[in-house]
């Protein structure tokens, strides 16, 4: 997997954004960490796929509800309503990026330790159900 330098920085920014958002939620919805996490996440996504593709991803008609909720949640966090902002933002995030969950699950199953854990009988069914993966009848 070959990444340009800008994409590598984008991956780092996206990772730090997710980390700051997680810390913001863990620390009782700290608005500063959540706002910083949102800014880092959006700038990282923009650097990974480019500004034009980012705009087209968020502006697609099928993703309009998710985009409005995601950006509305970010605005709620900025306007000092972090609890409600995170709830609305999570709904928007799931609508926007929910299509990627089966791909992420497939990638995680190829990792050494995590893949073994995800292949355990009961965990496999729960993970498949959460990711929306479909199993073949055959």
From TrEMBL:
GO terms for cellular component: COPII-coated ER to Golgi transport vesicle; cytosol; endoplasmic reticulum; Golgi cis cisterna; Golgi membrane. It comes from Schizopora paradoxa. The keyword Cell cycle does not apply. This is Got1-domain-containing protein. Keywords: Golgi apparatus, Membrane, Transmembrane, Transmembrane helix. PANTHER family: CGI-141-RELATED/LIPASE CONTAINING PROTEIN, GOLGI TRANSPORT PROTEIN 1-RELATED. The keyword Transmembrane helix applies. InterPro entries: Got1, Vesicle_transpt_Got1/SFT2.
């Amino acid at each position: 997997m070959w990444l340009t330098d800008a994409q590598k920085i984008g991956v780092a920014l996206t990772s730090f954004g997710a980390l700051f958002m997680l810390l913001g939620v863990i620390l009782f919805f700290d608005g500063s960490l959540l706002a910083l996490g949102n800014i880092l996440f959006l700038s990282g996504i923009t650097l990974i796929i480019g500004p034009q593709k980012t705009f087209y991803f968020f502006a697609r008609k099928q993703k309009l509800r998710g985009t409005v909720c995601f950006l509305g949640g970010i605005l709620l966090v900025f306007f000092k309503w972090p609890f409600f902002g995170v709830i609305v933002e999570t709904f928007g995030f799931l609508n926007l990026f929910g299509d990627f969950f089966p791909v992420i699950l497939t990638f995680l199953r190829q990792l050494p330790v995590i893949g073994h854990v995800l292949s355990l009988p009961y965990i496999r069914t729960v993970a498949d159900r959460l990711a929306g993966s479909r199993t073949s009848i055959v």
